[in-house]
Amino acid sequence: MTNLTLYKQIHPCQCQNLAKLGYKSLVNLRFDDEVAEQPKSADLAISAKKAELEYQHIPTDIDGIHLQQVKNFADVINKLPKPVMVFLWNRQPCQTFVPKCGRVWANLGCLNLIIVSVLQTLVFVGNLA
């Protein structure tokens, strides 16, 4: 297992399975109410806590991502227990997110541990249901 996995939408009922798979933390990059069927961040936080997962909600606008958001994301990821599951809503935004972050991270002028980890270990995993 990698230290960081990027995945599509996670639902509260999947938190126990994530813990059983060995994940220690869950990071939600979605804004609440993006779509009608989307679980609320508060519900995910409750399920994550019951599964003994650390939970962070960092709503991120993929099209408007900027350097400070990347720095904040790196700080959060560095502090969370590993491995970490990070999620967006589906694979298309994930595929958009990675190159955009890569361009922003390149502007940092240095590569800290999380940046290297993200670029080297980012994976798409199969269905967790």
Q: Approximately how much helix is present in the residues?
A: 40-55%
Terminus-to-terminus distance: 18 Å
Instruction: Give the class from helix and strand content and strand pairing.
Output: alpha/beta
Largest sheet: 4 strands, parallel
Q: Beta fraction of the residues?
A: 5-15%
Q: Outline, from the CA principal axes?
A: globular
Number of strands: 4
Unreliably modeled segments: 91-96, 103-129
Estimated radius of gyration: 14 Å
Biggest sheet strand order reads 1-4-2-3
Task: Give short descriptive properties of this protein.
four-stranded parallel sheet; globular; 129 residues; 4 strands; alpha/beta
What do these coordinates show?
By secondary structure, the protein is α/β, with parallel strands linked by helices. It is 42% helix and 12% strand. It has helices at residues 15-20, 41-50, 67-79, 91-106, 113-121; strands at residues 4-7, 25-28, 54-57, 84-87. The chain has a four-stranded parallel beta sheet with strand order 1-4-2-3. α2 links the parallel β2 (25-28) and β3. The two termini are 18 Å apart. The model is unreliable at 91-96 and 103-129 (pLDDT under 50).
